[in-house]
Amino acid sequence: MRQAGRWLLLAAAMVLVPQAAYAQKKKPHKGANAGAAAAPAPTPVDADADQAAAPAAPPPSADQPAAGAAGDTSGASAPAAGDTGATGGDTGGMDICQITPDAPQCAAAKEFDLGAEAKKTVRAEIYAVQQEYVIKSGRFEIMPYFALTLNDQFVSHDAPGLALNYYLTQVLAVGVNGNWYQGLNADSDFNFQNRRAARIAVPLNEYQFSGDLNFTYVPMYGKFAGFGDFIFHYDAYVDGGVGVIRTRPIPVIDPDNRSFQWSTLVNFDVGIGFRIFFNRWLAAVLEVRDLMYFEKIENLKVATGAGAQDKTTWYDPDTHFTNDVQMQVGLSLFLPTSFDYRLPK
Amino acid sequence: MKRRFVRTVLASVLAAGALSTASAAEAQEIQLTGPLKGAPAARHMRLYREGRFEIAPSISFTLLDEYRRTILAGARLNYNVTDWLAVGVWGAAGAVSSTTDLTDRINVTAPRDPLTAINVNHAAAPYGNGNAPQPSFGDQTAKISYVIAPQLTFIPFRGKLAIFNKIFVDTDLYVAGGVGFVGIQERQDCGGTGQNLHPCSDPRTFALQSTSKIAPTGGVGLTFYPGKWFSIGVEYRALPFSWNRAGFDSRGAGTNGNFPDQKVDSNDETFKFNQLVTIALGFSLPTTPKLSE
């Protein structure tokens, strides 16, 4: 019986040890200072509650815009904790926890022993954005958009599209996107003017659809004050990947004899995008993306006689490296729509 | 069915409206009861613009050119009346000009014969002289010589940018608008009657002549401030006006003027939404910015 009890204790210890190890290994959040990161059991803070409180938090200086909201050093939070006995008198009555004790950041501050926290060594590094407005890690992004051709004066390849991404980390996502072009390829008047004036025909191609597997990297983020009145957040990203595109020539040189089928070609794509957040789950997106592939174009030479019907003579023997540069305008929806910060601000 | 669809759409719009306004209402609630009611969104902000002159040498690249690309070198001069409004002028001159792939292809493949004699540059009247080398088609394509644009700059957004979580720069976003005085070189008029003009098949008519245009211009740009007295700017600018970029006779005849009339004149000019990207390095005086409250 005693042995059974020992075995049970050992089993319980084995279950608990890995959990403690995981907690230890977890890196502190980028936006939090070292003192807060060392707290034994940080309470997740609701993102929306934090947003509501942010305007009311008094910034102590221009270089430490958000430190007051953390509740670890500023006099604004000390009375709420109750442990230190500090009064908020030195703030000259600017203590939000005295005015609105139910404010979310006051409740968060109660979770900490401010006296003990104050004795810890603080890594004196202040981030430009203390707590990123949108946590992307572990969230899905759905991005419907419309793509407009930027670099083809002869045929435009406009297309609606959809991208789906999953953020593995705050800065890295993997996903897919697809465009549907068929029905929206448009031969331009400029093309006709050139044919008539210079008596030359430029081979044209149209697209059916494209689809790519992409990686997205988000190296830049920031915030803007609009008219000195409101603040909005943005980020910029680069993406790239590989996929397929289906194209076919539009018969221009010998339309009487030639009729082309769709061909599936491998493409590579790179892009750079800019995202403005309306809230924590909805953003407007502007992206410029280049789809690169080797195009099969119509042969400028026409075989005579029966050879004109020979399909092997319809294509130019060489493939041509093609850049299809698109501007994509769309919306970005993040799911789930809400999230918790691991550490308080 | 239709009524049901309308109800569904209305319900969706109302739901979306309620969702989008909910968070703003919460923020407002806190502001009303908080001690910083009415406080600015940012305090102790460096006012990089207010009361300062800026001179910004720039280099501009034309975009989406059909026949000829131009790189313009110039500068922007601004006086920032406030942190959100500036008056100034941007000027640039064409420094480098190169032909596009389409121009090169036309040059190589377009036949020099009676059908193209009025549109494609050729050696001797009426359309070439045996095996003599042909002049380049690129020589007849129009180019931008200079741009001078007095303008107002409006700076509604001001903030900061983090790059790789290591580099932090103050940034502003601006829109600029004004009037552009544009000098261009395009193919001279030809083929008219009673104006002592040569017929358009005459090789002399493919030479370019200077002329000018007045056009609206506007742009949007980002300015990054890595230091107190210098900045780096990236700007997109539109400069729309009509011009004959290829030197073709493409319009003027027919009931709607959409057919060639054997003349090259203003009827052959077509509207182009000319676009440029500009990179600028700005220097501000005085060298130290003010701080906001």
Which properties best describe this structure?
heterodimer; A: 345 residues; alpha+beta; Porin; 2 domains; 8-stranded antiparallel beta barrel; two-stranded antiparallel ribbon; 8 helices; 19% helix; B: 293 residues; mainly beta; 8-stranded antiparallel barrel; 14% helix
Low-confidence stretches of chain B: 20-32
The tally of structural domains of chain B comes to: 2
Instruction: Predict the CATH topology of the largest domain in chain A.
Output: Porin
Name the helicity range of chain B: 10-25%
Range of helix content of chain A: 10-25%
Order of helices and strands of chain A: HHEHHHHHEEEEEHEEEEEE
Q: Over the alpha carbons, how many angstroms does the gyration radius of chain A reach?
A: 30 Å
Q: Structural class given helices, strands, pairing of chain B?
A: mainly beta
- Unreliable parts of chain A: 17-42, 50-93
Rounded average pLDDT of chain A: 75
Provide a count of the helices of chain B.
2
Largest interface: A-B, 50 and 53 residues
Briefly note the CATH topology name of the largest domain in chain B. Answer: Porin
**Structural class based on helices, strands and sheet pairing of chain A:** alpha+beta
Number of contiguous helices of chain A: 8
Major sheet strand order of chain A? 2-4-5-7-8-9-10-11
Which overall shape of chain B is indicated by the principal axes computed on the Cα atoms? elongated
Major sheet strand order of chain B: 2-3-4-5-6-7-8-11
Q: What is the string of SSEs of chain B from the N terminus onward? A: HEEEEHEEEEEEEE
How many E-type strands of chain B?
Answer: 12
Structural write-up:
The complex is a heterodimer of chains A (345) and B (293). Helix content of chain A is 19%, strand content 39%. Chain A is built from eight helices and twelve strands. Chain A has an eight-stranded antiparallel barrel with strand order 2-4-5-7-8-9-10-11. A two-stranded antiparallel ribbon of chain A has the order 1-12. Chain A has a two-stranded antiparallel ribbon with strand order 3-6. In chain A, strand 7 and strand 8 (230-250) form a beta hairpin. The longest helix of chain A has 24 residues, at 2-25. Chain B is mainly beta and 293 residues long. In chain B, strands 2-3-4-5-6-7-8-11 form an eight-stranded antiparallel β-barrel. The interface between A and B is large, with 50 and 53 residues.
